[in-house]
Design goal:
Elements (H helix, E strand, L loop, with lengths): L3 E5 H11 L5 E3 L6 H10 L3 E3 L3 H15 L3 E5 L3 H5 L1 H10 L3 E7 L16 H4 L5 E4 L6 H13 L6 E6 H5 L1 E5 L13 H13 L3 E5 L1 H5 L3 H11 L3 E3 L19 H7 L2 E5 L16 E5 L20 H9 L9 H22 L8 H11 L5 E5 L2 H9 L8 E2 L10 H11 L5 E6 H7 L3 H6 L5 E6 L4 H11 L13 H7 L3 E5 L5 H9 L5 E6 L14
Parallel strand pairs: 2-3, 2-4, 4-5, 5-7, 6-7, 9-10, 9-11, 11-12, 13-14, 13-15, 15-16, 16-18, 17-18
Antiparallel strand pairs: 1-8
Helix pairs in contact: 1-2, 1-7, 3-5, 3-17, 9-13, 11-13, 14-15, 15-16, 15-22
InterPro entries: DHS-like_NAD/FAD-binding_dom, THDP-binding, Thiamin_PyroP_enz_cen_dom, Thiamin_PyroP_enz_TPP-bd_dom, TPP_enz, TPP_enzyme_TPP-bd
Cofactor: thiamine diphosphate
Family: Belongs to the TPP enzyme family.
Length: about 550
């Protein structure tokens, strides 16, 4: 006979969440979800609260990305849920297993005009894998288990449940929840064998490894496949760091040479979207390896597209025993291009000019960031440089908004990263435009003693809009911000610390102070507004 549990709706929900490995809650207080707080408070379950609901969802997404397990955001009804939709949408595009539990106006008075009465499900359904309302207290654990099973099954993604007020406050009993069911998707062995043969026999193959390689815990399998087949690897998203920068098959600066010269491009765990020229690599054949059939490209036709558990697919590639071409000359050619790119970057990162070049900021950051530091990108122009100049050494140490490109992730991601890694450096790279979206949540970090370093590239403009608009029309509108705004003063006013840097020579000491401060610390760097990064960034 199954074990039974009893309690109010919040206690039943928390039991199911714990069974799925959830260890913390991100929220903004609201009466519709008080029972969830009560259950957490009485059992010592950590609660982290924010000043805007989007930050709660972004924090949950950071945990989901870094830990490869569900992250939880609890939002009150109506505007609480709608304020979190951008975060849900980012999680959807990033395949992050985030669970959002929303409050909901009472079902017994539905249609009478209760406070914050809104049917959330139709709004969030297009950007979630599962969205539903729980109408019985006893059904809460089962509903959470079902939703989390969907969130964790490739292709992963966010899920949503809302619970009417009288349902979550009521008491009942239910079967004790177990861990969610997550099926392993077995790839077609013939497709895998064909992919292995194409890669092995190619003269100039290259691998592009994306976020799903990390999310699928397939980093070791990727390394084994690349080393066995002797194929150069370029990484994007959370695939960055899968091969450390010192690995002989890791390439970051030779991307253009690799894609121009390749005869087979193997894209693993990332879509063939705008970041990868929509899958158009000239005359090269494309092998697209994905974690689920739903992720196969429909706008282009790869030669072969194995779908399924990435560890199984990559391990099978490593086991290939057929004929292989010699790739050593190709690797050497790319290494020459890589070395030239690194020399060029080193010169740019040493630029001793005022106003400060963004490249110089990243040159100084490379000196102070630890190998396992978590770097977080929240911005457009300034953060675009990060993809070029920063090379993560450890997998799972890079967070950016992903293909949805939503600004405002910074403080939420920082909170989730700090909660996940209490002893690592956490560094947010933020444009001054992005600062307007989430900087108030520095107060949440200060109040809950979650120190992070925030480096703002402050050029006083929307750089990715101002320069292109000038080029297109000869003028720009709605593209200027307040020059030299003291974002560090904002952080100090909320209990953190910071400073403004206007001279390149002052950067090293400012960054040293930031990383030793022990409180949220903002380094406000006045960067050159004339220095704009090209849109062909390899950030993602």
């Amino acid at each position: 006979m199954s074990e039974r549990i009893e309690g109010h709706g919040g206690e039943l929900a928390l039991a199911a969440l714990r069974a799925a490995g959830v260890e913390e809650m991100f929220t903004l207080s609201g009466g519709h979800v008080f029972p969830l707080y009560d259950a957490a408070h009485k059992s010592g379950f950590p609660i982290y609260d924010v000043r805007h609901e989007q930050s709660a969802v972004f924090a949950a997404e950071a945990v989901a990305k870094l830990r490869r397990r569900p992250g939880l955001a609890v939002l009150t009804a109506g505007p609480g849920v709608t304020n979190g939709i951008s975060g849900l949408t980012s999680a959807y595009f990033n395949a992050s297993p985030v669970m959002v539990i929303g409050g909901r106006a009472p079902a017994m008075r539905w249609g009478s005009g209760s406070l914050q009465e809104l049917d959330h499900v139709p709004l969030v359904a297009p950007v979630t894998k599962h969205a539903s309302t729980v109408f019985a207290t006893s059904e809460i654990p089962g509903a959470i288990r079902t939703a989390l099973g969907a969130a964790l099954t490739p292709h992963r993604g966010p899920v949503f449940l809302d619970i009417p007020l009288e349902i979550v406050f009521s008491h009942d009993e239910a079967d004790a929840p177990g861990a969610p069911d997550v099926a392993v998707i077995e790839p077609d062995p013939d497709e895998v064998a064909r992919a292995a043969q194409l890669i092995a026999e190619a003269q100039h193959p290259v691998i592009i490894a994306g976020s799903d390689v990390y999310a699928s815990n397939a980093v070791a399998a990727l390394r084994e496949a690349a080393e066995t087949l002797r194929v150069p690897v370029i990484a994007n998203g959370m695939g960055r760091g899968a091969l450390p920068p010192t690995h002989p098959l890791a390439f970051a600066k030779a991307r253009r040479a690799a894609l121009r010269g390749a005869d087979v491009v193997v894209v693993i765990g990332t879509p063939l979207d705008f970041r990868l020229s929509f899958g158009d690599f000239g005359s090269a054949q494309v092998v697209h390896i994905v974690d689920a059939p739903s992720q196969r490209a429909t706008h282009v036709q790869p030669v072969v597209s194995p779908a399924g558990d990435l560890r199984l697919i990559l391990s099978a590639l490593a086991d290939y025993t057929g004929v292989r071409a010699d790739h050593e000359d190709w690797i050497a050619t790319l290494r020459t291009a890589e070395d030239a790119g690194k020399a060029r970057d080193a010169q740019e990162m040493a630029a001793d000019t005022d106003p400060i070049k963004p490249a110089r900021v990243y040159g100084e950051l490379r000196r102070v960031l630890a190998p396992d530091a978590v770097t977080i990108g929240d911005g457009g122009d300034f953060v675009s440089y990060a993809g070029r100049y920063l090379e993560p050494s450890v997998p799972g140490s890079w967070l950016d908004p992903g293909p949805y490109g939503c600004l405002g992730t910074g403080m939420g991601y920082a909170m989730g990263a700090r909660v996940t890694y209490p002893d690592r450096q956490i560094c947010v790279l933020m444009g001054d435009g992005a600062a307007g979206f989430s900087l108030m949540d520095v107060e949440s970090l200060v109040r809950q003693q979650l120190p992070v370093v925030i480096v703002v590239g402050n050029n006083g403009i929307w750089g990715l809009e101002k320069h292109p608009m000038q080029a297109m029309y000869g003028y720009d509108v709605a593209a200027d911000l307040q020059p030299g705004l003291r974002y560090d003063d904002v952080v100090r006013a909320m209990g953190g610390a910071g400073e403004t840097v206007s001279k390149a020579a002052d950067l090293p000491e400012a960054l040293e102070r930031a990383f030793s401060a022990g409180v949220p610390y903002l380094v406000n760097v006045l960067t050159d507004p004339a220095d704009a990064y090209p849109r062909s960034s390899n950030l993602a």
